[in-house]
Automatic annotation (TrEMBL):
EC number: 3.1.1.11
NCBIfam families: PME_inhib (TIGR01614)
Gene3D superfamilies in the cross-refs: Invertase/pectin methylesterase inhibitor family protein
Keywords carried by this UniProt record: Hydrolase, Signal
This protein's name: Pectinesterase
Gene Ontology process terms (BP): plant-type cell wall modification
Domain (Pectinesterase inhibitor) ranges: 28-187
CC per GO annotation: plant-type cell wall
InterPro entries: Invertase/methylesterase_inhib, Pectinesterase_inhib_dom, PME_Inhibitor
Organism per entry: Helianthus annuus
One Pfam family cited in the UniProt record for this chain: PMEI
Transmembrane segments: none
Signal peptide: 1-23
Amino acid sequence: MVSKIAIPLIFLAVVYLARTTIATGVNPSSSFIKSSCATVRYPALCEESLSPFAKTIQNSPAQLAHTALAVSLKQSQSTQDYLNKLKRFKGLTPRERSAIGDCLEIVSDSLGRVSKSMKELKNCERAKGQQFLWHMNNVQTWVSSALTDENTCTDGFGGRVMESRIKTSVRAQIASIAQVTSNALALVNNYAQKH
């Protein structure tokens, strides 16, 4: 039987631990995200982009992979919007306009693949055995293809003729997508291994 003195002490200990956890920002979900992000190519970006979704992710490798793909999709949509605006800019050279158009097409394809991957990942959650492997293989193939697309997007901006702020700006946008997609692929692969 717990003594009357022990009850307030236990209560104070629980309150202290809760306050310490809130003050330091440490919770099990954040620790899970941090340890999972330690395995990817861009860990700081991974933590930064996924930490706001800690409550949704909790300790679920499936939810972590799904959220990472959602971050990649959002970044791709943002870049697509940016390239659409940039393509209408009046000061572009014909070569820049052509390179932006090619890049826009590639980003659109990539967006489609990541979107399909997110839907397919939901099928993985309900599948078992060979069926899980089949769905997961689709996800991995599409995300990997999206990553390859993103990396080839800047090829049209090669050479000294294309040295400009436009090139720098587009490359920064594409690098951002490629990094979050690379992280998403790593987290998808981790989920596949843990299943």
